[in-house]
Design a protein that fits this description.
alpha+beta, Dna Ligase, domain 1, 9-stranded antiparallel β-sheet, 11 helices, about 30% helix, about 30% strand, globular, binds adenosine-5'-diphosphate, binds magnesium ion
Length: about 400
């Protein structure tokens, strides 16, 4: 470690690239330990700006901004993948502790490199091919090298489903995305699961129970997330083991969220990973012994990892901007939602709402996943995020 100061000393400097909702929730977790969290992002008006006074305005994609910010830190981590890894590598060479490892981050940032990594490490993942252009995909179709239906993903451009196109037949070819891409075989998905695993520099690992994701088909965003997943103990154990195998293959410290497909043959495949707190772990704040945010801090600071045990079944719903509204956010039905038993409201404080923008989330804890799901449906039916200007 570049500093002799202990991570729990008030002078210790932990820096995070990114000040969105994940940065905000990391700062809230750090606050319990009275650990200041230093954040770099474009504007103090972003979600983390409200909860940490140590906010530096700058661009986390810019070499100089990241290097200058990181130089003042003891440990540097991220809440978003799309950061300047050149600067992180230089900081690491100069003795700073950087988690996740910038070389692994470069692999994860590129969906093509990620797929090659799983192939090389023998980690099960959907069969794929890489292409440089949209025209090359069309040529491969003509030559019979790929077949409908398939899933095309931009190597670097996308997130939250925006860089993913499902191409069912020649009539949906107009949906092809431009630029370098991965073409994957369409998996016959039974369930989409996510397993969050933490690893620290001492090599300790801790894995959370699998969660089951239900997607909003229009926005292709997770809208309903259930823990525990309704899978057999055998599949649960395999999913947790696969997440551990994956984090160990990357050799990462911090959190790794592993998105998995359970196919109709009962096979588990790794879809993609995120080396940071993840939407599929928000429920842990209210339903597990240790939240994913505290766990990420423990992991990057090489502290003992917390228990991942579930206290209560839960359902997490993203609170998305309603369709047809863009402008200063207004929340309809908040008070009725707060009256729902076991409902924990998390608002991110984003000034502007847009259709499907993640404005907050709610976790409903209950005696069973079914009871939590019924109340989550009530939340979705009650709360509307709109704009009247
Ligand atoms: N090979 C595949 N077969 C079937 N569905 C897929 C496949 N790859 C992705 N999807 C669907 O598209 C969604 C988004 O893909 P993903 O690679 O996770 O991109 P993002 O970065 O947008 O989350 C997945 O959650 C899944 O629903
Ligand atoms: Mg995904």
């Amino acid at each position: 470690m570049s500093s002799k100061v202990s991570p729990l000393h008030p002078d210790f400097k932990l820096g995070v690239l990114g000040g969105g909702q994940l940065g905000k929730m990391l700062a809230l977790a750090a606050g319990n330990w009275h650990l200041p969290l230093y954040v770099l992002d474009a504007s103090r008006s972003f979600p983390a700006g409200r909860v940490t006074p140590f906010f530096t305005e700058g661009n986390f994609k810019d070499y100089d901004d990241v290097y200058r910010f990181g130089s003042q830190m003891d440990v540097i981590t991220i809440e978003i993948e799309h950061v300047n890894t050149e600067a992180l590598r230089r900081l690491q060479e100069e003795g700073k502790v950087v988690h996740p490892n910038p070389d692994m981050l470069d692999i994860i940032k590129d969906k093509g490199a990620q797929k090659l990594f799983y192939q090389e490490k023998g980690i099960p993942s959907a069969p794929f091919q890489l292409f440089e252009t949209e025209e090359a995909v069309i040529a491969a179709l003509g030559a019979g090298q790929i077949h409908y239906p398939f899933v095309q993903k931009s190597r670097t451009a996308g997130y939250d489903g925006r860089g993913v196109s499902v191409v069912k037949d020649e009539y949906s070819l107009e949906k092809l995305l431009p630029g370098a891409c991965v073409v994957e075989e369409m998996v016959d998905i039974d369930k989409e699961l996510a397993v969050i695993v933490a690893r620290n520099a001492s090599g300790q690992v801790a894995v959370y129970p699998a969660v089951e994701m239900a997607f909003n088909p229009e926005a292709n965003l997770v809208e309903f997330l259930v823990c525990p997943a309704s899978i057999s103990p055998d599949v649960e154990q395999q999913a947790e083991a696969l997440a551990i195998e994956t984090v160990e293959a990357y050799g990462l410290c911090g959190l790794l969220a592993v998105e998995l497909f359970l196919d109709k043959n009962g096979m588990l495949l790794v879809n993609e990973v995120a080396p940071r707190p993840h939407n599929s772990g928000h429920h842990t704040i209210d339903s597990c012994y240790t939240s994913q945010f505290e766990q990420h801090l423990r992991a990057v600071l090489n502290l003992p990892l917390g228990s991942t045990r579930m206290k209560n079944p839960s359902v997490m719903v993203n609170l998305l901007g309603a369709e047809g509204f863009e402008g200063p956010a207004e929340y309809e039905g908040l008070e009725e939602c707060l009256a729902i038993e076991g409902m924990h409201l998390h608002l991110y404080g984003k000034a502007i709402t847009k259709p499907y923008r993640k404005m907050g989330h709610a976790t409903i804890v209950a005696e069973s996943a079914e009871a939590a799901a019924a109340r989550a449906r009530k939340v979705l039916a009650t709360l509307r995020i709109i704009s009247n200007s």
